[in-house]
Amino acid sequence: GNLHLGPRELFAGLTAALCEAVAACVAANRRAGDGSALRDHIDQLCRQTGKSPEELGLAPEEAQEPEVPFAGEHLWAWFWEVSEARASNGFCLLPLSWVDIEAWARLTATPLSPYEALTLRRMDAAYLSAHAQATKKDKERL
After folding, report:
1. Domain residue limits at 99
2. Per-residue pLDDT tens for 32-84?
3. Residue 133 in contact with residue 126, Cβ under 8 Å?
4. b or e along 56-66 (b: 16 or more beta carbons within 10 Å of the residue's beta carbon)?
């Protein structure tokens, strides 16, 4: 498969896969009007009807757990950990800053390579974009 790719292409593919997984996770875990996650509603509906999410006509990103590449599992865990400290300005979520990421790495004694720091930022951009799309969909439903 990927033996002919150089390190940059491999890293770019890993970053893209992680960003896709973040977006899928946001879509599947957005909160419904009752405060529960959409994925919880899907699971309940599947149990009640005996049908799969696909049989119910649900979009794949809403029905499945995101695929996290093995090589990026540490970045996946790190992203959600640093993301817990995300700030909001009262109107929207704020992006993770370089200072946020650097402080987290220093305080947790986690050595970050430049690639890993950039990937965390790209995952954050995917998170914010998916969150904005989910919020827009929720407003359109009202």
Report:
1. 7-141
2. 666 666 666 677 777 888 877 777 776 655 556 788 999 999 999 999 999 99
3. no
4. eebeebbbeeb
Which amino acid does the sequence have at 28? Answer: A
Residue at 2 is within a domain: no
What's the rounded Cα separation, in Å, for the pair 53 and 84?
29
Residue 11 counted as domain residue = yes
pLDDT tens string 88-113: 888 889 999 999 999 999 999 999 99
In one letter, which amino acid is 47? R
Could you give the C-alpha distances from 118 to 43, 53, 121, in angstroms and in order? 35, 35, 5
**Residue 21 domain flag:** yes
Cα–Cα distance measured from residue 116 to residue 90, given in angstroms and rounded to the nearest whole number: 29
The pTM for the full model equals 0.75
How many domains are contained in the chain?
1
101 within a domain of the structure (yes/no): yes
Report yes or no: 141 and 30 within 8 Å, Cβ to Cβ: no
Calculate the CA dihedral of residues 102, 105, 110, 114 and round it to 10 degrees: -30
Max Cα separation, the chain? Answer: 50
